[in-house]
Amino acid sequence: MGIIPPSMQMKNIVILISGGGSNMQAIVQAAQREDWAGRFGARVAAVLSNRPDCAGLAKARQLGLATQVVDHRAYAGAPEPRAAFDAALADAVEHHAPTLVVLAGFMRILTPEFVRRFAGRLVNIHPSLLPAFPGLRTHARAIEAGCRVAGATVHRVTDELDYGPILDQVAVPVLPGDDAAALGARVLTQEHLLYPRVLTRLLSER
Ligand code: GRF
Q: What is the pTM assigned to this prediction?
């Protein structure tokens, strides 16, 4: 009844996705299994996507989560489309007063304004052992380069794409005969363990 005292307020996690949403699902399931609500007062408050048709949104709804679409294509006609989209997205995220903003396969480069607004709260997962292979086609590039080890990185988000302080990594061997799909699938299963582990640590520190 009435106003909830600050000590009782939940730590909200907002997850941003563009694709399959398997990392989002792994985080939500870990939060349930490991009782993040009881242990940290934390919950996944919402899942936001820039793609109305992405499979992850359907998964989020099945998990009973609040979802919202901020479609980047709707801002194509604006004088500064990227800035306009990011401002709308930032407002939608801010609505949940998030403790953490978790990029999980979110395939848009965010403006410095967005990054600044959520500084210290914004984390990303990237499917390589950063600082190796920022950008796209990470598994194919690792195989082409002859890497013996690939992996994934969770890092804080800064203005520079796929950089920022590393929070944790997982290494995955590149096996003889691996193609990008086989390696990517093995890395992805490890991402599902890595991301919840990092978030657990961040929540316990807050
Ligand atoms: C993951 O490999 C993640 O590291 C990268 O995009 C992929 C997203 O997969 N940023 P999903 O949408 O979580 O299934």
A: 0.95
